[in-house]
Amino acid sequence: MVKIHERKFVSADPDKCVGCQVCEYICSWTKEKTFNPLKSRIRVVRLNPLVNISITCRLCEDPPCVAACPRDALTQSEENGTIIVDADKCNGCGWCIEACDYGAISLHPEKKVVFVCDLCKDKPDGPQCVKWCPEEALELVTADILAQKARITATKKLFQEALKEATQTT
Amino acid sequence: MYGYAGKILHIDLTTGKTYTEPLNEDYAKKYIGGIGLGMRLWLENAKAGVDPFSPENPLVLATGPTSGTVWPTGGNGHAFVAKSPQSYGIGESKSHGSFGTELKRAGYDAVIFHGKAEKPVYVWIDDDSVQILDASHIWGKSPAETEDIIKEELGDYYIRVAAIGPAGEKLVRIACIINEKSRAAGRCGMGAVMGSKNLKAIAVRGTNDVTVAKPDEFLEFVKEFHERMKGPATKKYRTLGTPENVLVHNALHCMPTRNYNNAHFEAAEKVSGELLNEKYVAKIIGCSSCAMRCEHTCVVTEGPYKGAMARVEYEPLWAMGPYCGIDRLDAIIKGSELCNYYGMDSISAGVIVGFAMDCYENGILTSKDLEGLEARFGNHEALVKLIEKMGKREGIGDVLAEGVKFAAEKIGKGAEKLAQHIKGVEVTGYDLRCLKTAALGFAVSFRGADHNRHGAYAFDVKGKVNRLKAEKGRGKMVKDIEDVYTIIDSLIICKFSRGTYYNEFEDLAKLYTLVTGFETSPEEMRLKGERINNLARVINVREGLSRKDDTLPYKVMHMPIPDEGPAKGAYVSQEELDLLLDDYYEARGWTKDGVPTPEKLKALNMDDLTSIVEAKI
After folding, report:
1. How far is residue B448 from each of residues B31, B84, B526, measured CA to CA in Å?
2. Using one digit for the tens of pLDDT, what is the confidence trace for A12-43?
3. Which CATH fold topology does B436-551+573-614 show?
4. Which domain holds residue A95?
5. Which end of chain A is more exposed for a tag (fewer CB within 10 A), N or C?
6. Minimal Cα–Cα distance from A88 to chain B, Å?
7. Which chain B residue has its CA at the smallest distance from A133's CA?
8. Is A167 part of a structural domain of the chain?
9. Distance from CA of B228 to the nearest CA of A (A)
10. A90 CB contacts (<8 Å, ≥6 apart)?
11. What is the pLDDT of residues B344-358, one digit of tens each?
């Protein structure tokens, strides 16, 4: 099993995400050859104009969705940590949907089985949402890299003035 | 069909009956969608001379062929069309966000609301299921509150809602229809028409797929436009936003100030786009499928208006700021928030307050008439109070809620000369005295005073013509750009993205072809734009409008710009206006009275409408 530190997932930067839904359209196109957010593996949430983010599978360690499935339809990929849905076993009961803290699993509007981000495993250039995001808000990252970035952002904010002076003098 | 859903939904609010009809493919090809299709459907569903507030005035809600696709800015629009209670001609207004995409996925290119419900209702369109539900418990609420309540009671937080506020319910003539809490189909009083039908809100859930004719080429074109949108053509909207215009217009002395008493605002620095961004913009967000982002969401963090939040663009900022002599951005943000709360067009609301202040300064309205308000120019408290009064139709607000044209008629005492409107619709933030191409565009605009029917101000502001001169040739310039703008509003794409269509009709035709599969040449696309402008004119002619209505506000024609500077002394004389109108009508192939000729209509394949104009020639 791929180690948790090496597991890459798609994450949206809340400061950059504007809630434009391009990721939803591109995901539904890539996976289902149609434009329909209901068939997207990544979904946008806009609570109010200031609060926007798109959310998809975080590839959890010991994923609660896998544990919740009474029919053993869900497994976690040894290779990259994505959740694999066995469409023959899944009956769309929704236990995994309830178990997921992020709302990353959805019930397919027509097929009546659940679906979840597979990091566009068939695409050589990786997740298409990341490729298309006009704001470059989406990234394929590990948790460690996210932590690094958060620390750098926080430090920049803290030393905003000092950095400005430093760049002006150089 | 590709792009199109292929279906029109009729909802009769009087009888509660609903039915669908297939989309007429001929209409789709001729009038595209959005305002084009909407106006054509309105025309055949409304009798000539219908009163805007009559149940017989249908309210048409239309999407465009690109709605629901990932076309940048195109995926997200919708349009409302009805006879306007301001102009008594055709009214139309667009909004963006995500509402239009949902309606397309629900399976409709257009929804036509007929009749009038006996009591307040809202309509719940859930794919094929259409229900008319009681709205008595949400009557009186703001559009945002309405949206929350409806989502809660229908139990789905992803449904989209377009609603009117208290102003629409009370038939305030500048009432708008707001979707997703902050996006407005603002102009022409479409919210008042909705209110006259006792229709509080439209809730939509759509689960169907939207497909395009040539998906691979389409996506390549999308990618190209994503790149174009990162370039210079959209930089303004992504950075400072349209409030950048404040200092630009002020430097040119083309920013109407204090109800057109000036064309230059001495305190412009205090309401500049630069300052707005520095102090108040909390986040810039985007619509569904958009690859630029423009929505500058502002928050006031201190002072008397602490907590106010609204999206701010140049026009409302100008209307509630310089036009009222107000130099406080926090008050402008509060004013915008109140307009969203009551559901009113914030441009018209600001212009009406400026008008009321001018009346006060001239002794036409007294402090007694205004219930103790000292409505001097620059009094921000008066701005906030007057907006509230209008939204509630309370006291003087009941008169002002009629819009400047009808309010001035009621007030009398020469107030008509202070009422700055065209065809009953309040002016916008371009001083027409010194922007003469724009003056023509505003005068002939089929929905009344408006910059968004033509964008002709760009020739003047960018110095492509002598803006102080009225001359032959401007007619064709206005006609040409109008023909682009009707296509934009019919597809529906966003005007902020117009600069990315480098090859204009070629790009627009390619987009239309890839989405719908109807092979369309650039020239055919141009003809669609021209056809839609003729359609609007035919409707206005049928409703009794003519050359006499293609005019300019009193001050534009009688009060030369007094400010020392580049535009001093400028105004538009009757001779100049006549020259411009003659030139425009000629370019359009219309009669001297501005009526499309039967020959012109036939040339545009509009033979079915010639009888309307024949009666007027």
Report:
1. 21, 10, 23
2. 998 889 889 999 999 999 999 999 999 999 99
3. 1.10.599
4. 4-142
5. C
6. 24
7. B291
8. no
9. 11
10. A69, A71, A73, A74, A113, A114
11. 999 999 999 999 999
